[in-house]
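User: My instructor asked us to take a sequence, write out its structure as tokens, and then describe one feature of it. I'm not sure where to start. Here is the sequence I was given:
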Amino acid sequence: MVWLVGWLVGWLDGWLDGWLDGWLVGWMVGWMVGWMVGWLVGWLVGWMVGWLVGWMERRNRLRERERRKFET
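Assistant: Let's start with the prediction itself. The structure tokens for your sequence are:
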């Protein structure tokens, strides 16, 4: 009977320890990967939007220059 209680307590302790370790490691790795991916995606989107805005501004400037040539 005593060995059964000891085995049960040991099994429960091992299960809880494994579950907590798995949860903590999973949470930390998930947080780090999520942060890195979020940073990378944010940087790429910001770069693409900046490039697109610059391209549109340049196109508008060239159109304006062409229109002024024809007006004079």
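For the description part of your assignment, you could build on this observation: Helices lie at 2-71. Try explaining in your own words what that tells you about the chain.
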